[in-house]
Amino acid sequence: MHNLTRILAGCVVAGAAFAADEGALRSGTAAFGSWKDDAPGVRRHLGANDLPDPANARSTVSASPAQRADRGTHVPQVPPGFAVELVAQGLNDPRVLRVAPNGDVFLAETGGGRVLVFTPDANGKLPAEPRVFTDGLRGVYGMTFFPPGPNPTALYVSQTGRVLRFPYKAGDTRASAEATVVVEDLPTGGHSTRDLVATNDHQLLVAVGSGSNVAESMPKKSPADIAAFEKTRMRGASWGDEDRRAAVWSIEPDGSGARLFATGLRNCAGMTLQPATKQPWCVVNERDGLGNDLPFEYATHVGEGKFYGWPWFYIGGHADPRRAGERDDALAKETIVPDVLMQAHSAPLGIAFYEGSMFPKAYNGDAFVTLHGSWNRDPRTGYKVVRLRFNDGTPTGEYDDFMTGFVVDETHVWGRPTGVAVARDGSLLVSEDQGGTLWRVSAGLK
């Protein structure tokens, strides 16, 4: 079990009482920064009008990947009134987290090819030694329980090239039967993340990232050829090596009826449903090579039949100069401006909406997003968990640093957040794949 261990000394408490959490809002270029500027409570807001001009943008620095540092005595920093606790370490590339209706916590251990299960005790504490629900799944990533609601009968699990269905009943910590392959032809290569979400109308959505940065090998087509191709796919669909990619698919529970649900999403690495609206949401890794601050990453609701820009446009109708003139102005005008814009090259991977009762009421309806961090910016940014603010179900566009402290110095990083989920008791669970750890954030000092 990779010598998983547990901190027995309890929690690291961030403060004696909940902070007012009303720090000065950083907007526009003032919201740009690096890991040195990060701290719990720092607030940012970026809009489409804040995008730098690509003609004048600072060139992207080809920074080297962050070197792994031992965690040592480092622990994540969280806002005052919250406490952070190490659940497990020694995990092999832990990624997506999902919480079953009965409270069991499922974790996709991508590097180990396993789905692990942590069963909380009566106090919400998770064991250091999880059980293995299934193994032997190379590149395992997305998970969703089906049908949605209190009594799922299946757990769907994705690998890079396929989607599997396991029978499931409440309390199962080991798969009771072999998986059924429901989709076996997902495009492979390029971005390997394949998240899943079950919608309330009993459809499954599957995210398939692009195979490249900006479709460098995709051949040009005439307007007539594009129109004919889109009749076989949907508006904004890419072709060639990128056919059926940079998109979210919709499929029936048995795997039939696969079709494109939305296009132009370069790499929707994490998906969930917003509780208030039941709409699917994606967090998206945007393209590289346009500069340190271009284009913004984002979180957004995903509308059926909508186009989000890649590879021709970004953040609405802003043209990528590397694909200029290939599509007409009509498509530019149809390109969706995402709901919440985040600093370029932050690399968002996971998203979870907060519905628990443990955190202060102001958190209800907000979302947490893990930022994995990217090599493609100098100085580095990302490497943290942020809170997206909502007002009565509507995103304000603001986001706050919530969990920081994963970067040691300009060169070394001990943790890169990946998965995020809200436990049944209302605590927040965060995985990170650099150090192979799982953390629990609780709120008990009121």
Structural summary, described in words:
It is a single chain. This protein is mostly beta strands and 446 residues long. It has one domain (12-443): TolB, C-terminal domain (Neuraminidase, 6 Propeller), CATH 2.120.10. 4% of the residues lie in helices and 33% in strands. The protein has 2 helices and 31 strands. It has helices spanning 223-232, 329-334, and strands spanning 12-13, 25-27, 43-45, 67-68, 82-88, 94-99, 105-109, 114-118, 131-134, 143-146, 154-158, 163-167, 180-183, 196-198, 204-208, 247-251, 259-263, 268-273, 280-284, 297-301, 313-314, 318-319, 340-342, 348-353, 367-371, 384-391, 394-403, 412-413, 417-422, 428-432, 437-443. A 6-stranded mixed sheet has the order 2-3-27-26-25-24, with no helix packed on it. The two termini are 37 Å apart.
